[in-house]
Amino acid sequence: MIAAIAAAVPIEEPGCFPERVCAGITLRAVERFPPRGFSIDALNAEDPAVRRLALTLGVAPQQLKFQQQVHGADVRVVTAESPLQPSDGMVTCQPGVVLCVRIADCCAVLLYHPAVPLVAALHAGWRGTAAGIVERALELIQGTFGAAPHELIAYLSPCASGERYEVGPEVASLFPHSVRRDAEGRLWLDLRTELRRRLLHAGVSETAVEVARGCTIGEPRYHSYRRDGKDAGRMVAFIALRW
User: Fold this and answer.
1) CA 174 – CA 188 distance, rounded (Å)
2) What is the CATH number of the domain that holds 118?
3) Can you tell me the mean pLDDT for 74-93?
4) How far apart are alpha carbons 148 and 32 in whole angstroms?
5) Each residue's pLDDT tens digit, 207-225
6) Number of structural domains found in the chain
């Protein structure tokens, strides 16, 4: 559906959301946007990359809502008038407000609740996950909108995979359910397994969670900070109620 609107920015789409939801993740596409690939680095409506993504989605640039991500667990309700603020999670029930999360190894958690309806977008690296951003978001959704977790549909985006995401013992100790130790004693964190576990523990149905397979470190179609360091760009995972 999105690809048919415009081919300017290649999009990978979840399969779990209904037609009333617009959701996806931008791809790196170095061949189309050399030499670095498509990346959103600025967070304002005048930035050429922001405008290109808006054109691809068929919205005004002002409808793309970003946040100053700080690797924390603050989640806020936003509207079309909400300013740019520090947070790592956004929730809206307004159609046409496109919630955008910038990632390059962290996982984006996209949520949809059909009864309200509402959508949410969370930036979940290991710090935010450990701080409880998933739990904070579900508490806000239920407390503010009366939306039960068991009715949510969730998508976990491509991110650093459990096969390639090596962590130290301090980080590993925070995730005893989702870290494996290999024969050489190295520790590997499966962030999506941890996020899925937390979603299910909070009441989301097992059949309502889609887990993307892509690994940002190992697959060049994605941006990766672990792989490319300071030269890494940023993908955007987005979700909105259709307008």
Assistant:
1) 12
2) 3.60.140.10
3) 98
4) 42
5) 999 999 999 999 999 999 9
6) 1
